[in-house]
Amino acid sequence: MKKYIGLTFVIAAISLIFMSCDNGVSYADRLKKERKLISEFIAEKGFEVRNGFPADSVFEKGVYYKDPKTGIYLSILDYGDLEHKASASNRSMISYRFNTRFFLASDSVEANFPANQSAQFHYLGDEKTLYANKSTVLGYTYMSYTVAMPLKYVGEGGIVSVIAPFNYGSAYQQEAYEPLWLNEIKYYKIW
Asked: DSSP states of 79-131 as a string?
């Protein structure tokens, strides 16, 4: 009996080793590929990246601030109504629309979210703890820290552009190791 239990544990351990094997691409390789894709994209679009937030808080067209903590690239196109900002104390509900571009290994895919629909989430103050229905295709594919992060800077009607590294992206981005360009996110309603 002890032999069978021991053999079972050995088989389970070997199975775990083989299950954890990947296709030979390390996390470091994925990060290197991501940096290359983002750099090429920034060059292709002619964007300028600054490591500091503009002193006057005015973003020129095509200029992005790279957050040193997250690596998220942010450009504020319109600050919106700063008197009507998201609040953690009342668990603000945010309604937003966007268009986007995924960076894929062989090509890129562009998508526009339908103009007559919006996505929503509850802002809980810390961008990492927002509440949205991630069981939908939209939530799984797009809802992330990256969508909520700009709310500390903009109010209702604010418009931003964001380049998101996969590790701060949606569930899909994190699983596929794909960075994402949210060309325009407009926060239509904050209540």
From this structure: --BTTS---TTTT-EEEEEEEEEEE-SS-EEEEE--TT--EEEE--SSTTS-B
